[in-house]
C-alpha cells in the first residue's frame, strides 16, 4: 500500500494538488493523509510566554481545522469515488515543515504531494517558500503541482541528470512506481559542457539503462545551454507532463534552487515536478 501525504491549507491551490494525486495514483491501493497545520495568530506575538490554551484559542482553531478537514474528506469521496483509497485526517498545532518531517518518518510516507504557490501568490515566484523548504528538509519524494495545473497522464517524463549520482533503488523506484501505471517514456537529459563523460559517469549512465530496461526511455545530450535553458527548450519541443530531479548535494539541482534568489531563476515551471532526495528515511 502506498502512503501519500497531502498537506492542505484549504486553498484552491492545495485542492488542485490533491486532485492531481488522486488521479495519478488511482490504480494503486493508497492511504492518504490529509494534513492541516495551524498556529493561532496571537501565539506569534506577546502571548508566547502565556499558555495560549488558557484562552481557548488553540481549541477554537483546532476545531475549525478539523471541521474543514472532514469537509475536505467528504468532498474527495464525492468527487473521486475509489475503493482502493482510504483517508486519515491530521490536524496539528505545529509548523508545516516540522510536521511533514515527523509524519514522513512516523508513517513511512512514500510521496508528499503539494501545491507550489507561495502565500503571496505572486506569479513571478517559482515556488512558495514552504515548497522550497520541503524540498530541502524532507527526506521523501515530493511532487509539487503548479497552480491551476489540470491532471495530465504522464506520457512524457523529463529527467535531467549530470550522471554524477551512483543511482540506487530509492532514487529510481519513485519514478518507475509512477511510470509503470501509464504508457510513459522517460527522457533522460544531460547538459554537457564540451567534455566527454568520465568513466564514473558512463557507469552511472549504464546503471540507469538497467533500471529503465522495462520502461520506454531515450537519452538526450545538449551542449551550450545551462540546465534551466535546456529544460525550457526541451519542453518547447516535446509535451512534457512531469519533470523529475534528484536533489543531490553539489548537483545542479542545489544550484538551481538554493543558491539563487528563487524569483530570479530563468524558467517557470508549468508542469508537475517530482523531487527525489539523495537520501531517504528508508535508506
Automatic annotation (TrEMBL):
| Entry-linked Pfam families | Usp (PF00582)
Per its UniProt record, what Gene3D superfamilies does this chain match? Answer: HUPs
Superkingdom field: Bacteria
Q: Which InterPro entries match?
A: Rossmann-like_a/b/a_fold, Universal_stress_UspA, UspA
Q: Where's the UspA domain? A: 1-145
* Family recorded in the similarity comment: Belongs to the universal stress protein A family.
Quote the protein name from its UniProt record.
Universal stress protein
Organism of origin: Flaviramulus aquimarinus
Amino acid at each position: 500500500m502506498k502512503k501519500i501525504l497531502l498537506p492542505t491549507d484549504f486553498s484552491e491551490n492545495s485542492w488542485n494538488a490533491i486532485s492531481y494525486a488522486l488521479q495519478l495514483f488511482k490504480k494503486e491501493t493508497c492511504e492518504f493523509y490529509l494534513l492541516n497545520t495551524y498556529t493561532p495568530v496571537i501565539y506569534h506575538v506577546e502571548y508566547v510566554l502565556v499558555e495560549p490554551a488558557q484562552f481557548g484559542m488553540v481549541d477554537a482553531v483546532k476545531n475549525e481545522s478539523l471541521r474543514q478537514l472532514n469537509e475536505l474528506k467528504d468532498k474527495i469521496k464525492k468527487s473521486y469515488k475509489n475503493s482502493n483509497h482510504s483517508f486519515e485526517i491530521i490536524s496539528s498545532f505545529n509548523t508545516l515543515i516540522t510536521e511533514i518531517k515527523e509524519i514522513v518518518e512516523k508513517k513511512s510516507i512514500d510521496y508528499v504531494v503539494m501545491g507550489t504557490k507561495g502565500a503571496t501568490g505572486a506569479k513571478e515566484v517559482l515556488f512558495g517558500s514552504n515548497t522550497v523548504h520541503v524540498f530541502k528538509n524532507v527526506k521523501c519524494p515530493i511532487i509539487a503541482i503548479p497552480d491551476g495545473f489540470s491532471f495530465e497522464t504522464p506520457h512524457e517524463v523529463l529527467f535531467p541528470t549530470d550522471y554524477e549520482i551512483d543511482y540506487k533503488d530509492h532514487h529510481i523506484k519513485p519514478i518507475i512506481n509512477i511510470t509503470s501505471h501509464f504508457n510513459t517514456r522517460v527522457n533522460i537529459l544531460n547538459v554537457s559542457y564540451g567534455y566527454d563523460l568520465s568513466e564514473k559517469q558512463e557507469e552511472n549512465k549504464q546503471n540507469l539503462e538497467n533500471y529503465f530496461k522495462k520502461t520506454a526511455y531515450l537519452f538526450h545530450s545538449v551542449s551550450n545551454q545551462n540546465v534551466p535553458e535546456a529544460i525550457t527548450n526541451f519542453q518547447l519541443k516535446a509535451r512534457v507532463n512531469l519533470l523529475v530531479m534528484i536533489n543531490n548535494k553539489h548537483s545542479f539541482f542545489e544550484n538551481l534552487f538554493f543558491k539563487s534568489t528563487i524569483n530570479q531563476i530563468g524558467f517557470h515551471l508549468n508542469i508537475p515536478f517530482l523531487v527525489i532526495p539523495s537520501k531517504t528515511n528508508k535508506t
